[in-house]
């Protein structure tokens, strides 16, 4: 289905370059969202030619985010930090967490101007339980020490940090391992890491898709990683059941099993700091 153009994006908000494909907006297109421009849609269609699974992987990823957030909320977590939020897509993290615990607090962090505009309008707005912060994950200390984040989230109590479909947008030089270590060091025991990542599949499909992003000079590089490289992000965490696996294999719902959902292009897990 071709998404309709949204009024909100017909004239770009200030700071938004509609001609440079944005990872957040391409992902929005794959999720059938409306906050994307022609350059994003052109790149997305090009990626689909070499990686026809890209749309179902994006959808499987978002579904993992929802199931994992709900599981962690049910485990008693009331504070969530969603790093690399993406364009708002319902249900958002606070909607899922607050279904379980109406008092859950959420901080959204991203560096994409269109994400920030829509997140501030649709997610945080004037409410006090949800905030949106501009932050670049390549500077993890600045993100975690942000005064607004510190005022909203109490790191002396357990938190859940989401790094869902975002670490593959950081090159090794950008320091994804340093980011995860910085997060882990801030966490008290009983905190959770919810993480998914584009998998470097043996057939090279993810790499072919990644080459298209590089070729079109998208807003960030795409770096698929091997199982072992992704597993290392969980050093210092205990992965809760069922451990590290493909997106649709993480606690699938009955509907997913009946529908035969079986995406094989992303890996994910939820870690608990012991
Ligand atoms: C593929 S989307 C994933 C959105 C959401 N986490 C999900 O899984 O549905 C990745 C998001 O990470 C953001 N992002 C990429 N690099 C970033 C960086 N260095 N700092 C902050 N956010 C970043 C993008 O702007 C985009 O919104």
Can you walk through the features of this model?
- It is built from eleven helices and eight strands.
- By secondary structure, it is α/β, with parallel strands linked by helices.
- It starts with 22 loop residues before the first helix and ends with a strand.
- Residues 1-9 have low confidence and may be disordered.
- Bound molecules: S-adenosylmethionine.
- Residues 23-24, 27, 61-62, 65, 84-86, 110-112, 115, 135-138, 164-166, 169, 220 line the site of S-adenosylmethionine (SAM).
- S-adenosylmethionine binds at residues 23-24, 27, 61-62, 65, 84-86, 110-112, 115, 135-138, 164-166, 169, 220.
Topology record:
Blueprint: H1 23-30, H2 38-50, H3 54-74, E1 79-83, H4 93-100, E2 105-110, H5 113-124, E3 130-134, H6 140-144, H7 147-152, E4 160-164, H8 176-186, E5 192-198, H9 205-215, H10 227-232, E6 238-239, E7 245-246, H11 254-259, E8 266-272
Summarize, please.
The chain is of the alpha/beta class and 274 residues long. It is 39% helix and 14% strand. This is SAM-dependent methyltransferase.
């Amino acid at each position: 289905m071709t998404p309709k153009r949204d009024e909100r994006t017909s004239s770009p908000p200030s700071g938004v370059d509609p001609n440079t494909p944005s990872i957040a907006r391409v992902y929005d297109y794959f999720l059938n969202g409306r906050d994307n421009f022609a350059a994003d849609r052109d790149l997305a269609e090009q990626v689909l030619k070499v990686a026809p699974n890209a749309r179902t992987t994006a959808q499987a990823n978002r579904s993992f985010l929802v199931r994992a957030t709900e599981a962690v909320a049910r485990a008693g977590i009331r504070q969530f930090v969603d790093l690399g939020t993406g364009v708002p897509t319902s249900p958002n993290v606070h909607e899922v967490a607050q279904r379980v615990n109406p008092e859950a607090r959420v901080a959204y962090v991203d560096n994409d101007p269109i994400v920030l505009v829509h997140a501030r309008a649709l997610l945080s707005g004037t409410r006090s339980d949800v905030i949106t912060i501009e932050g670049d994950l390549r500077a993890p200390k600045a993100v975690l020490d942000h005064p607004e984040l510190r005022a909203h989230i109490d790191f002396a109590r357990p938190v859940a940090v989401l790094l869902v479909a975002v670490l593959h947008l950081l090159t090794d030089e950008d320091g994804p391992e340093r980011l995860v270590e910085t997060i882990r060091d801030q966490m008290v025991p009983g905190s959770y890491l919810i993480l998914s990542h584009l998998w470097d599949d043996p057939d090279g499909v993810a790499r072919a898709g990644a080459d298209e992003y590089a070729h079109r000079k998208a807003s960030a590089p795409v770096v698929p990683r091997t199982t072992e490289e992704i597993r290392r992000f969980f050093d210092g965490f205990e992965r809760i059941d069922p451990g590290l696996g493909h997106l649709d294999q993480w606690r699938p719902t009955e509907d997913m099993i009946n529908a035969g959902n079986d995406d094989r292009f992303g890996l994910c897990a939820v870690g608990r700091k012991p």
